[in-house]
Amino acid sequence: MIPIIRISDPIIRITDPDSQGGRMRADARKNHDHLLAVAGAVISEQGADASLRDIARRAGVGLATLFRHFPTREALLAALLRAGFDELAENATRLEKSDSPEDALVSWLRDFVAYARTYRGVTQAMTSAIEDPESALHASCVTLRSAGARLLTRAQVEGTTRTDIDGDELFDLVAALAWLGDQPSHAPRADHLFDVVVSAIVRTAS
């Protein structure tokens, strides 16, 4: 069962003692990024409820150092996921300018689902955050949904994509496909079902 992850803005806005005037020192930023990289690897292996002690140990720091950068599990997850979500949104903009409308949409959907499968439990975080304006991930999720909606609309205008779905429904489909890949008993069928869903959305231009 996917663990429920609740992420709130006040957690993220805690002042880091290694910052100066709200800006993180270079050495603190290096430590921060190292911890995020290690956390990403551990969470990929163990899921969203990964051991924080294990993350600290593998990063070569004490648990207190991990908590100084990320006071709670939710703060760590928010920092980790937000960077990936923002990168996906930026990638949508690049695809919008370079690929055909249908190819851009399919490529972006594939990348989105693949990223969402990277961390077990991310689907719950994603679907909860987009409905919660107080979530630290809310803005990133909304931006991500808007990016997908733009790619979808572009393909719809070209007549290569069905017109009876919108950006909200596209986001829901991505979440559902990612969830399938998150479940060991369903994962073997996830790629095939992705192709089935995409073939139902994209069609040959008339």
Can you offer a commentary on this structure?
It is a single chain. The chain is mostly helical and 206 residues long. The chain is built from ten helices and two strands; from the N terminus they run H-E-E-H-H-H-H-H-H-H-H-H. It has helices spanning 9-12, 26-46, 52-59, 63-69, 73-98, 101-116, 122-130, 138-157, 167-182, 187-201; strands spanning 19-20, 23-24. The protein has a two-stranded antiparallel ribbon. A hairpin with a 2-residue loop joins strand 1 and strand 2. Helix 5 runs antiparallel to helix 6 and helix 6 runs antiparallel to helix 8 (138-157). The longest helix is centred in the middle third of the chain and has 26 residues, at 73-98. Mean pLDDT is 83; it is low at 1-17.
In short:
The protein is an all-alpha fold. It is built from ten helices and two strands. The longest helix is centred in the middle third of the chain and has 26 residues, at 73-98.
Low-confidence runs? 1-17
- The computed structural class is mainly alpha
Terminal CA distance reads 44 Å
Strand composition percent: under 5%
| Number of beta-strand segments | 2
Secondary structure: elements and pairs:
Blueprint: H1 9-12, E1 19-20, E2 23-24, H2 26-46, H3 52-59, H4 63-69, H5 73-98, H6 101-116, H7 122-130, H8 138-157, H9 167-182, H10 187-201
Notable traits:
10 helices, mainly alpha, two-stranded antiparallel ribbon, 206 residues
